[in-house]
């Protein structure tokens, strides 16, 4: 509040301007407070914000004629002088509230000259300020014991509530406390404080300000020896806002204090189950307003062993697989896929980048839905190669997610965490799944809610809905199918991620009303072996979900998203193809009636094209060429699966079952074809055990027949060897290897074979 000054003896306004700074939640409750430069706790509050009960108690006990005198009440001065003379000691000072404000702003000695100075300053105040302004100066600067000044700071310190919500008894207590702030401090001298409070209540009863029944009830409230610590509910968040708004004394945030407290307690308990030096972070956003409702930047603030001063909501980390939903959504919008397009989870033999799946092994034919729900790496890398790496990174950047990429050279590893981002950035992007594909900038301050949203588009409403529908089908971690009904009201779309080397565990969840982000890891970047998104961040995500008031309202499906029956291996509509070509039927979500056919990877040869036409001899049903001199030969079409999927197909779906053998009468007229690639010497589903006295680990000889060119060998999805034609090699399993071992070989033409053994 600005104070008008006198040109000769200006009124000091320094003390009137020095306030502690406070960050409050959406209900104006402090999240964290910061003392002023002198360590004084003084929170600004207006006259209108203070409880009327306090004003009544203060005026009627301290200065009944405050609204009528001109700063000095001569009757009070005469009464105080008489009492002091007759009693031989100071009984009453006779100071009005205006005089007390003058003494606060300009301290003076307790001499006659000091008293005269006080009177002059009081008259100066009354000349330049209105009564409400003087009263507000008192409310904000009166001493309440120790480093506490002002009624708002006192109310929070001694009563843990705002001065807006005082009871009759509490109002009387705070009204008398400045008279002797040391003797009456409730946290040190609760009995003296209660006795002084009752004096105020008796005075108010005498003046009939409050009914006697109210006075009697107020006296029943005990004054307890308590002092509430300065809140530290959102320390990193509060410091962030403080730095961003250095001139604001009260920063009104969008945080829900109750939720913040619940999640603070939750994460404090959860982190005790994790290894040393680990931390965690939680961010909750209201999708309807883009307001941040909970912000836990660290699991243990100020604990240096857990790097408690580092805000892991803003920290740049590898996002693992959390970007995959955006790629699949963009590919849907581009017409490259539908929800059940056939993808191949097989070795990328001729590619420069050969990632493995997190769980190890290959899965063969998978749908888009399955690949995304299971977070398979190879289908995502294949799709990114088709969509375009630079294009994908640019789309994210345009939507507000700028990835931190080494040397600013995006590559296929981006989709598996090869670029850095923050929990804040991920949560902001995931909220698009609930906002028709639009990304709204997160909002942290109350006044921002009245402003138009800052919006960018990431996905169409249709692809955003399809992606969240797919992610909604992922089971809650640790859940049992029979218990699914228990979680029906808590159903969310969610995705996990794990960065390379188990350094970061992520889980992001979305429903119609909230987007929740969780990060778990070590802020110093060291690994946490055995901890990954599904096992560590996922359970924490659902503990947060259980703390939210979620309902069963689903995100509305756009009209241009329809369910269609499609067939594998062609991937097209069931109604648009011959029934004999439909070897597997699936129901897919399609956008704008666009049904793209199955796409075949660039490293596959022409034999992988969907429809294959051949000529056959009707007598023996064997295959011939069109040039073969066979009377009555006929043409036939079959739908072929991608060649790389052969080992995972049932027998009647493989090429050997669909394409007849060559007719010997015209075998020379047919183009030569490589013999079928096959692993020999290892029986499928055989069991191997340690052998010898010392229990040496088992070994296998890797050998093939057929195929063409160099052979690549994969064991549990990791490439181990390459062999030439007629060349063999030996693989010795490690001491710790056990369970199923998937062994795959692939030649240069994409021919593939697989066996699985058990150790």
From TrEMBL:
Q: Which pathway does it serve?
A: Cell wall biogenesis; peptidoglycan biosynthesis
What name appears for this protein in its UniProt entry? peptidoglycan glycosyltransferase
Cross-referenced InterPro entries, in alphabetical order? Beta-lactam/transpept-like, Glyco_trans_51, Glycosyltr_51/Transpeptidase, Lysozyme-like_dom_sf, PBP_1c, PBP_transglycosylase, PCN-bd_Tpept
A single GO molecular-function term is:
penicillin binding
Query: Does the keyword Hydrolase belong to this entry?
Result: yes
| Organism superkingdom | Bacteria
Q: Is the Zinc-finger keyword given for this protein?
A: no
Record's keyword terms, sorted: Carboxypeptidase, Glycosyltransferase, Hydrolase, Multifunctional enzyme, Protease, Transferase
The reaction(s) this protein catalyses: [GlcNAc-(1->4)-Mur2Ac(oyl-L-Ala-gamma-D-Glu-L-Lys-D-Ala-D-Ala)](n)-di-trans,octa-cis-undecaprenyl diphosphate + beta-D-GlcNAc-(1->4)-Mur2Ac(oyl-L-Ala-gamma-D-Glu-L-Lys-D-Ala-D-Ala)-di-trans,octa-cis-undecaprenyl diphosphate = [GlcNAc-(1->4)-Mur2Ac(oyl-L-Ala-gamma-D-Glu-L-Lys-D-Ala-D-Ala)](n+1)-di-trans,octa-cis-undecaprenyl diphosphate + di-trans,octa-cis-undecaprenyl diphosphate + H(+)
Domain Penicillin-binding protein transpeptidase, first and last residues per copy: 281-521
Reported EC number(s) for this entry are: 2.4.99.28
Its family remark reads: In the N-terminal section; belongs to the glycosyltransferase 51 family.
- What's any GO biological process attached to this entry? proteolysis
Q: The Glycosyl transferase family domain covers which part of the protein?
A: 31-204
Gene Ontology CC annotations of this record: outer membrane-bounded periplasmic space
